Amino acid sequence: FKPEMTYAVVGQEEKIVGYRDLKVNLCYTPGSLMPYFEMSYASQIPRKLGYPRPMDVYKMMREKHFVDFLPNRAAFEAQCAKDARRFRPPGVKVHEYRAPAPQPRAVDATLVPTTGTRLDAKTATSTPMATYEIYECAYDTPGWVEYSRRLQLFLLWYIEGATFVDEDDAQWRFLLLFEKRPLAAPTAADPYICAGYVTCYEFFAWPDLTRPRISQFLIMPPYQAQGHGGRFYDHLVALFRADRRVCDFTVEEPNESFHVMRLRHDARCLAPLLRERQLGPEVLS
């Protein structure tokens, strides 16, 4: 999938100059997010034609990463296979749910048919269901800092004005969403695919309360517009409501799509309370 913005890496004009037919791929293993960079082009444009020196794309990408790139595609494919066998999300699992596997895509032959499949009216083909799991991490969760350093570059591609969080600040809370995809082989471990990421900062509220602020909220492009953002948000709200220390919570500079999603889910959350207290329509005016 393609980035929505690139200025944080390649500059405000979002252009890479000095090449003909340039192609840049930044690949990540689906679970551990180990990066692999590859670049190809037909030729470099000679400087005698008045063009500036070709930009060092590898250097620009490398400066935003805190880990080394995998050396070649063979190493990347080997790491993908290793992920499928061994990778497990960091942190503590706090929630799971069932939902259709990412669409649109062809039915994956490695997926195990389940009783939860549904029939698409247009294509008359079964849509496989998947399990999604939410994990919570803190700054001192084993393995979290290393994983966060690989994950946070996605924020620059998809969140306007995103910045990296302070790794040593204990007030940060992190939640991760993973798709758990079953394999056909009964003895194989189910591989995990990173599907979303949320950061929250807990501010102090007098006298001994907290006021969490949702800072960054990202659903990976293959999982967008499929209800996962709403489920992720609902779980956050449930966490906040269950914590007696939380007096309220806010969102840092939400974009329009998040704002609309939040309004819908807040209204859905409040509707049972309105019925329970027998409040009339005038309350909403």
TrEMBL record:
Cellular component GO terms, alphabetical: chromosome, telomeric region; nucleus
Organism: Caulochytrium protostelioides
Enzyme class at the top of the EC tree: transferase
InterPro entries assigned: Acyl_CoA_acyltransferase, Hat1_N, Hat1_N_sf, Hist_AcTrfase_B-typ_cat-su
Keywords, comma-separated and alphabetical: Acyltransferase, Transferase
Catalyzed reactions per annotation: L-lysyl-[protein] + acetyl-CoA = N(6)-acetyl-L-lysyl-[protein] + CoA + H(+)
A GO molecular-function descriptor: histone acetyltransferase activity
Pfam families, per database record: Hat1_N
The protein, known as: Histone acetyltransferase type B catalytic subunit
Family: Belongs to the HAT1 family.
EC code: 2.3.1.48
